[in-house]
Amino acid sequence: MTARYHLPGLFEFYEFYKVFLPLYREHPEYFYDWCRIESIYGAPADCLWGGGRAGFGEDRAEDVIALMNEYEISPRLTFSNSLLTEKDLEDRHCQRLCSLFEKSKVQSGIIIYSDLLLDFLQKNYSNFYFVSSTTKVLTRFDDFKKELDRKDFSYVVIDFRLNHAVSNLRLLSQAERDQVEFLCNECCSLACRDRKQCYEAVSRKNLGLASEDFRCTSPSGKYGYRFSLAMESPAFIGIDQIQKTYLPLGFSNFKIEGRSLGSAILLEFILYYMTKPEYQLKVREEIYLDSMLDLF
Question: Which domains, and CATH codes, for the chain?
Fold first, then answer.
């Protein structure tokens, strides 16, 4: 089976992908042949329905769609705001995004939390597939299984704390395994109890509602995101596990987080998850590295 990656930064890293995707196409020998880019997800900075991360992504929707069509990659809109009301559904900017992305040559997806929004989109836009968002924080496997059983979703992003619940995952049918999407590189502590509140704080920010800034109380929160810490997490899914455990079990969808990070760390994700070690320096040189670069 082929590992299908769902990468971050549809709007947020548009300029990066304009440089990287031609390299990805022109030099397939640089990259593992057992994986491919299936989708890229994100939302504009001023998107009312947005969730998960806020305040990132400035590029024009028309340009984003054209880039995804050129490289035959599915664009996904991150509409995972958890606090939407009926009035919020009237937002013209988000409706315009839906009208544009619905016409993409490569079918677009929507990552979603709100059943209210889901019902609205299903009634008004017929050409999307839907992804159940990890922002629902379904930490019990039975609740995750119920989400899989819903006919609304083509994919369900499993909570990272269930990534290695292999005994339960083995009980799923192949059709269900095709729906499961694993969040591979989450840095958040498994012991965190504030994750849902963190996502709700972002939803309030996107809606322009007054609220205090969310402060992470996790011991590792003071460091921000570090890929090295994510790799040390018991929930981390590395390339060896993808090849030796998940693909043989019939799971093929793997999500990489990072919309609110910098393009430099996105490149590190791509180097680790997709690039053969002997070509990683070549990719760095093509993207940004030259002999005159100073770090300080």
Answer: 3-287 (3.20.20)
